[in-house]
Each structure stands twice: as structure tokens, then as C-alpha cells.
Write a structure and sequence with these properties.
single chain, 108 residues, alpha+beta, 3 helices, 3 strands
């Protein structure tokens, strides 16, 4: 998981914007605005050079509990282990998930 000190963006303003967006998502119904979740995920993942698989864990009101990047792969593949996704969801008492996966090449 990326943190303030471990970010792909060298611009501190962009990093601060991502943090503010993440804080905002923790208090917002994600399904009433899919574009907010999409924009958040795009900011988090668009500049990676390898494929990443991330999960947004949601509570029973579709609010963000935690964003976690679980798996990092190569330039054209990432292995995903369902057991790890579910284990973390159970630990967080999550009732919903948004799964995200990037393509560094830009080609779906």
C-alpha cells in the first residue's frame, strides 16, 4: 500500500489531493457516485510501471473502510489470490468490495 513517503508521484500537491480524496471517500456513499471511485483509483494506479491489484473494502453503507493494494505483478501480469482478498475482508468486517486492476500499457 502506498503511503505519504512511498508514493509514485513526486509532486506533494498531487499526493495531498489523493489523501484528501481518500478521506472524502471514507465518508461518502461510493455507489451514488461511481465517478468518484473511478477518479480515486485512476489517481492511485495510473502511473505504475507494473500491474497492481487493489481492493476498496466497504462497510454496509457502501462507505470506504480501507483501500489496500494487495498484489503487484510484472509489466503484463499480476497473480491474485482470492484467499487473501477474503481474509482481509473478514478482518475488516467488510460487506462490499470494489476490485481494481491497472494495465500499464494502457490497453485493456
Amino acid at each position: 500500500m502506498l503511503t505519504k513517503t512511498n508514493s509514485i508521484y513526486s509532486n506533494p500537491i498531487i499526493n495531498q489531493a489523493i489523501e484528501l480524496l481518500e478521506d472524502n471517500l471514507k465518508h461518502k456513499d461510493l455507489f451514488s457516485s461511481q465517478s468518484v471511485a473511478y477518479d480515486f483509483l485512476r489517481l492511485k494506479m495510473e502511473n505504475y510501471q507494473q500491474e497492481h491489484f487493489a481492493v476498496m473494502y466497504l462497510d454496509n453503507q457502501s462507505q470506504l473502510i480501507e483501500y489496500k493494494e494487495l498484489f503487484i505483478g510484472t509489466v503484463n501480469a499480476v497473480s491474485v489470490y482470492t484467499r487473501d482478498v477474503i481474509r482481509h475482508a473478514l478482518l475488516l468486517n467488510s460487506v462490499g468490495l470494489i476490485l481494481a486492476h491497472n494495465h500499464p500499457s494502457g490497453e485493456p
